[in-house]
Specification:
- The chain is of the alpha+beta class and 383 residues long.
- The protein folds into two domains: 111 residues, Probable inorganic polyphosphate/atp-NAD kinase, domain 1 (Rossmann fold, 3-Layer(aba) Sandwich), CATH 3.40.50; 206 residues, Sandwich (Tumour Suppressor Smad4).
- It is 35% helix and 31% strand.
- It contains ten helices and 16 strands.
- Strands 1, 2, 3, 4, 5, 6, 7, 8, 9, 10, 13, 14, 15 and 16 form a 14-stranded mixed beta sheet that branches. Strands 11-12 form a two-stranded antiparallel ribbon.
- α4 links the parallel β3 and β4.
- α2 packs parallel to α6, α3 packs across α4 and α7 packs across α9.
- The longest helix has 47 residues.
Length: 383
């Protein structure tokens, strides 16, 4: 009968093991059921939460805008988002008033649809609001979009970022023209190598207003190039039209500038252009300010000069290409050079006035201007 005892013990062990497995499976099933129920509850609660209200401020002169509006409505319906608000800019108001109205109506996100001018206008109204600006770039330069690595030639891709992107605070820059050249608010001024040095406080200044920039403000050659770009050519060939314009200014005179960085003593310099940047990437893979970071709380300043005619410009172009690859040429005897520094505030004065621009929008011919950084003042939506 001993074998019967062992069979009984074995059966008891198997039964206990089966019971343990059954208890374990029951517990696991209960946990899974609770998890599924919790997931469904969370999903139901999420569906009950109202989606964020999004407003679009669109430049109707852009050819893609008409079709884009229908695409936006379809995408929002598919994503179960509230129907977006839609505003269009005008010549009289390029987007500031429309953005303020969108914020007043409760928009959590305002989307700038257009070029750099529309982006600047929307940003100006949104600074300090704590709410988010998004972009559907439809312009020639699309400067901010390039520096944020957003889709530039893909409105549908940009729209996906609008709906499902993440938010980050970035810096903005402000420029105030303290003094215009005679007729400079709508005219061009020149500078001479023979012009005498002038003290900062020697002449009365305009009080003026501050103009926002998100990428680069410039005084000198770069602004003259932008001002002289043919609009019809730009419509045909895009940003390449700027280079055609630039060729006409290669033999212009160098400007004499007095520059003050923060609270340091001013320094005198002969320059082709002075760039003050929040970030530094331009169309065509050009990086003018390789150390510029859009959320570091400072502006990057580049003093650019050439001598020796075409040879100097060729060396300068090589310098731009090298720094875009992370290489620097620190030889002191260069005839085409870019000198970099950083600042929270920059003040510059030039004799006679030079063309000034902010993100490609012209300010006119300025004798003296000041730029400052507004750290973390704007929230933007990125991929």
């Amino acid at each position: 009968m001993e074998w019967e005892l062992w069979i009984g013990i074995a059966a008891l062990v198997v039964a206990l093991a089966a019971l343990a497995v059954a208890i374990g499976l029951h517990a696991q099933t209960a946990r899974l059921r609770r998890a599924d129920n919790a997931h469904l509850t969370d999903a139901a609660e999420h569906e009950k939460e109202p989606g964020e209200l999004i407003a679009f401020v669109a430049n109707p002169s852009k050819p893609d805008v008409v079709g884009l509006r229908a695409t936006v409505r379809a995408a929002f319906a598919e994503a179960a988002l509230p129907e977006p608000l839609w505003f269009e800019t005008t010549v009289a108001d390029p987007g500031v008033g429309q953005t303020r109205e969108a914020l007043a109506r409760g928009a959590a996100v305002v989307v700038a649809v257009g070029g750099d001018g529309t982006v600047r206008a929307v940003a100006e109204a949104m600074v300090g609001s704590g709410r988010t600006m998004a972009l559907v770039p439809l312009g020639t330069g699309n400067l901010l979009a390039r520096n944020l690595d957003l889709p530039v030639s893909d409105p549908a891709g940009a729209l996906r970022v609008v709906i499902a992107g993440s938010d980050r605070p970035v810096d903005v820059g402000w420029v105030q023209v303290l003094e215009y050249a005679p007729g400079g608010a709508d005219g061009a001024g020149g500078a001479s190598d023979d012009a005498p040095d002038v003290a900062f406080d020697a002449l009365p200044r305009d009080t003026g207003v501050e103009h926002i920039f998100l990428v680069i403000a410039g005084l000198g050659f770069d602004a003259a190039m932008v001002a002289d770009t043919d609009a019809r050519l730009k419509a045909k060939v895009g940003w390449m039209a700027y280079f055609v314009s630039g060729m006409r200014h290669l033999h212009g005179r160098r400007m004499r500038a007095r520059i003050r960085i923060d609270d340091a003593e001013p320094v005198d310099a002969r320059l082709r252009t002075l760039l003050i940047g929040n970030c530094g990437r331009l169309p065509g893979g050009i990086t003018l300010l390789p150390d510029a970071v859009i959320d570091d709380g400072v502006l990057d300043v580049a003093a650019i000069d050439t001598r020796g005619g075409v040879v100097g410009w060729a060396q300068l172009f090589g310098e731009v290409v090298m720094q875009g690859l992370g290489l620097r040429n620190d030889m002191p005897a260069k005839i085409g050079r870019i000198d970099h520094t950083r600042a929270r505030r920059v003040r510059v004065r030039v004799e006679g006035g030079e063309q000034a621009q902010v993100d490609g929008d012209m300010l006119g011919s300025a004798v003296e201007l000041e730029a400052r950084v507004d750290a973390g003042a704007l929230v933007v939506r990125t991929a």
